[in-house]
Design goal:
single chain; 194 residues; mainly alpha; 0% strand; elongated
């Protein structure tokens, strides 16, 4: 960030990219307050330098939205997730991995807000797109399968969750190996459904 600011100026999109990546790292380290500040600064730079409808702006909306979800600011998270989805659909098209990721993120927020029907619809749409563009055995497909199964369980529909849990286990075992922690999550979820 410092090098890019010094060489490119504070308003350059590469400064925004570096701030965004620093925000991601800071959020993973648990400093959510600093991460929010960095995301907002990155968003301001990116939207000013690239325009409000740029994929990089959507990326920052998306990641900031996930951060807001993690701190239970769900209305703000939903607004940011919807903005990211709208930009990605408009700029990248309907059937892209980025759109599927945005659908999944928005569905997760709606799930947290107990808007189960819309959340399920969006999870299923994300799953369809991910299978199409990433392939049926991609780890991200397993993530969405897991999300669908959890939502079914939360709705009291354990039997409906079973095929999604089983498929997530199969993908994670095949792609990630038998010692991966994500496989353990899926196995635990399957056991709960059973």
């Amino acid at each position: 960030v410092e090098l890019r600011r010094a060489t490119l100026g504070g308003a350059h999109p590469d400064v925004g990219a570096s701030l965004h990546q620093l925000a991601v790292l800071t959020a993973y380290q648990g400093d959510r307050e600093t991460a929010e500040r960095l995301y907002r600064e990155a968003l301001e730079i990116r939207s000013t330098a690239l325009g409000d409808r740029h994929p990089d702006v959507a990326e920052t909306y998306s990641d900031l939205g996930e951060l807001m979800r993690n701190v239970d600011r769900l209305d703000e998270s939903e607004e940011l997730a919807r903005k990211a989805l709208d930009i990605r659909r408009d700029v990248m098209g309907e059937r892209t991995a980025e759109v599927a990721f945005s659908l999944n993120n928005l569905a997760a927020v709606l799930d947290d807000k107990d808007q189960d029907e819309e959340a399920m619809r969006l999870f299923l749409e994300a799953l369809e797109i991910k299978r199409e563009v990433l392939g049926p055995d991609h780890p991200s497909v397993a993530n969405t399968l897991n999300n669908i199964a959890v939502l079914y369980r939360n709705m009291g529909q354990d039997k409906a969750a079973l095929p999604f849990d089983r498929e997530a286990v199969a993908i994670r075992r095949k792609v990630l190996g038998s010692e991966h922690p994500d496989l353990a999550v899926s196995l635990n979820n399957l056991a709960i459904a059973l």
